[in-house]
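Reply to dn_fold:

You asked what the input looked like. This is it:
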Amino acid sequence: MKFKAALIAVSALVAGTAVADDNGFYAGAGAGWSQLSLPKSKLTNDAVDLPAAFGYPLDPSISAKTDDNDIMWSAFVGYRFMKYLAVEAGYLDTGTGSYTLRGTTGTIPPATLTQAAPVSVKAEWNGTGWPVSVLGIWPINDNWDVFGRVGGFFGDVRTEVRLQVYEPTDPTDPTTGGLYDSGKGHTSGSSTEFIYGVGVDGRFLENWAARFEWLAIPSLGDSDTGEADWNAFQFALLYRF
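and this is what came back:
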């Protein structure tokens, strides 16, 4: 009877230790590849009007491109209440997306220019802020967890726009003519959006784990800064206290 009672006590102690191992605070940091789905057609409509506002109306022949990919990074802290549930808060930099429009001044350039001049408009778009999430966790075994994330992103979006007009030495290569005129401006706005994702954690030491995760924020930004869908693949390291 005493032997049976001892077994029960040991079993309870082991179970309690296993639960304790799943609970507690952790911190981590990561980086990865991000993509911003910038609204190219809307940006083009706005960008075409900018040179004209400064006295450099554009010829209809223009070209535009976006660079939606960049490096993102994040840092976070979390608390795991049980093996199936945790909460996280942290800081997130979405990376920078850019848009570039190139063209030439129209048939009537400013009086100080004797012929059509190359013009470029470049916009850079970046979001930073504080994500707060709840994680639902499915423990596969002692070393591997799969999780899903839902929460909110509370941050700011900044758009910087630069106008450059080049000397008309060679309209096909703006860099050969030197800079004739330039100007820049920026706008920013707060953005509160839904954030979600899925990922996997793998423990490789007693207190360390590696994480691979897909994250997404829809419609980040506002009418002033422009809106863009954002998603990223992130690799992170976690330390469990």
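Confidence is low (pLDDT under 50) at residues 1-20.
Hope that clears it up.
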